[in-house]
Fold this sequence. Notes:
Oligomer: single chain
Strand content: under 5%
Largest sheet: none
Number of helices: 11
Number of strands: 0
Distance between the termini: 55 Å
Helix content: over 70%
Radius of gyration: 19 Å
Amino acid sequence: PYTLGIIYENLGQRDQAIANYKKAIExxxxxVKPLINLGKLFDDAGLPDEAIPxxxxxxxxxxxxxxxxxxxxxxxxxxxxxxxxxxxxSKAVALDPSDTTARFAxxxxxxETGRDFEAKKVFAEILAIKDTHWDAYxxxxxxLIKEGDIANAKKILSELISKNxxxxxxxxVEQILQGL
Length: 180
């Protein structure tokens, strides 16, 4: 059933995917992967309250799994449960320091909670890991502007446009640059 769940999910047949993931859990209540997938499906559908029970069960079974902590942290951030989000996203970053997904989500939570120093550090770390993470440039540049470091903000935002001329927020970035 788990594999069928993945197939249905990839085909965009959410209800069939959910049914098969639930069947997989009925067969093996300790099967973490379908718990994670159910959590992601419900969160992606804008139902974080439905996602949390699956992801907390997955966490109880696999507290040191990157995917569990990353997804649980993201769901908590959607619920504005920032302390829990930071806890799980930080753990995910520690579990896989080279991955930028949890690190980026952590940076966004820091921005949301006014922890600009930590956010700026996280976005800089992302760019050191993956210099094509366009949204990290964007958020890093905006944080530099906020702290008054206009020279470095111009450099980062100009680099973003230069490296990715098709960046989805290009016109916004150009307006920001013109205003500096």
